[in-house]
Amino acid sequence: MSSESIQLLFDTIIKNEKSIIQGWLENLKSIGKETKKVLSASELEKQAKDFFDLFVVACRSKNFDIHSSVWQDTREFLITLSKNWAAVGVSSGQAARFIFSLKQSVFEIIAKEQLKAELHNNVVWDANILIDELGLFVIEMYQKSREDIIKRQQQELLELSTPVVKIWNGILILPLIGTLDSARTQIVLENLLQSIVDTESSIAIIDITGVPTVDTLVAQHLLKTVSAARLMGTQCVISGIRPQIAQTMVHLGVTFSDVVTKATLADALFYAFNAVGFAVQKKS
Fold this sequence. Notes:
- The chain is an alpha/beta fold.
- Helices cover 66% and strands 10% of the residues.
- The chain folds into two domains: 3-154, Globin-like; 165-275, Transcription Regulator spoIIAA, CATH 3.30.750.
- It is rod-shaped.
- The protein starts with a helix and ends in a 9-residue tail after the last helix.
């Protein structure tokens, strides 16, 4: 890498920008066939043209560092593009090849310059580094976007998996299914407390029939939820304590000494109705 080769690379790109974009759009057709279900050919072409316009503007600055301020507009465009691709289902490989496919067109133009062998190799090497850095930047931004989407989906699933149901005036049920970890406990706690405020319920049944095991950590999470609800003036009843869970809790020394516990949800409902002043009996 030398200042001469970098200068020549940028001069070549600027001088031949129309030929380069035409060649690149031709190379992108193979990617367009793969992404046509989520991204039309016209959309892909427009994105390529918009990127290339910014790319040429940055090249005019003759600054090789893509993390410098002169490349900011190009970076922001690629960040937005990566987010959109991640959202619609374009793969990471397709996103990377969008940039890397620019190489062939640039290399062909450099070859036509008929430079001396050493200078030609240096210019090609500089072009390779520049486009690789842009491609790696796209991959990084795409991966970050995918991680953000996954985190948001996990959050949505957590919220969906912890519904608080009002079954009667003053009575809520919170059925738990699956493992109860710290993240999910926070969602459970927020949903329950908000429902208590919204419904002014005095009884909340936490049913753990679907929780596979109750260890000291799960017990702490449950007690945290019960304590928070109690501060809101609501009594919690824990139901669904199966025999094997009861044995495990005794073995671990885990107790809910100051919490009403019931073996089944039906028992908890019977208790809750009595607590709010209703009697459950068969019709004569």
